[in-house]
Specification:
Layout lengths: L4 E2 L2 E2 L11 H15 L15 H4 L4 E2 L2 E2 L6 H5 L30 H7 L7 H11 L10 E3 L5 E3 L1
Antiparallel strand pairs: 1-2, 3-4, 5-6
Length: 153
């Protein structure tokens, strides 16, 4: 049962919560179980498991689309080069940068603007594809310095 409050608003069981990074632990565990069962491989291209609407232009740098090269292991290991959607330009989390649309809105801003809307995972990916760019080439991790500069290894 939900308890506590945000400001003057009491928590209720139906209240949505921003789950942040906890989803990575659940996802990695489920992928590991599916791999052990032979239902997928860490080396599967993500194109085998995601719809074309999600994949279209997902990872394009300098006019080259690397989407077909992304494997499940890249997503789990944060080496896909895809942008993140952390809110508040690093004010909520240290060493992050503001990932915003041309209108200056983050995905988090969009979610807060319509709190009754339920965002499907595909919608968040499509938003990021329209409004953000990959942070690095495939197979590399991107480090974001406190200055906001992105460096890849």
């Amino acid at each position: 049962m939900a308890t506590g409050q945000t400001g003057d608003i009491e928590a209720v069981p139906e209240q949505p919560y921003y789950a942040a990074s906890i989803g990575k632990s659940f996802t990695s565990t489920i992928v590991g179980i599916l791999s052990d069962d032979g239902q997928l491989s860490f080396d599967d291209p993500i194109a085998e498991h995601l719809s074309n609407s999600v994949l279209d232009g997902l990872h394009t740098i300098d006019g080259t689309d690397y989407t077909d090269e992304i494997r499940i292991r890249h997503l789990l290991g944060h080496t896909s080069g895809l942008p993140h959607s952390l809110p508040e330009g690093g004010k909520m989390f240290l060493n992050t940068r503001l990932e915003e649309s041309p209108e200056g809105k983050t995905l988090f801003d969009e979610m807060l603007a319509d709190p009754d809307r339920t965002w499907e995972p595909e919608e968040t990916i499509e938003w990021a594809t329209r409004n953000q760019s990959p942070t690095s080439r495939l197979g590399r991790t991107a480090t974001i310095r406190s200055s906001g500069t992105i460096c890849s290894d």
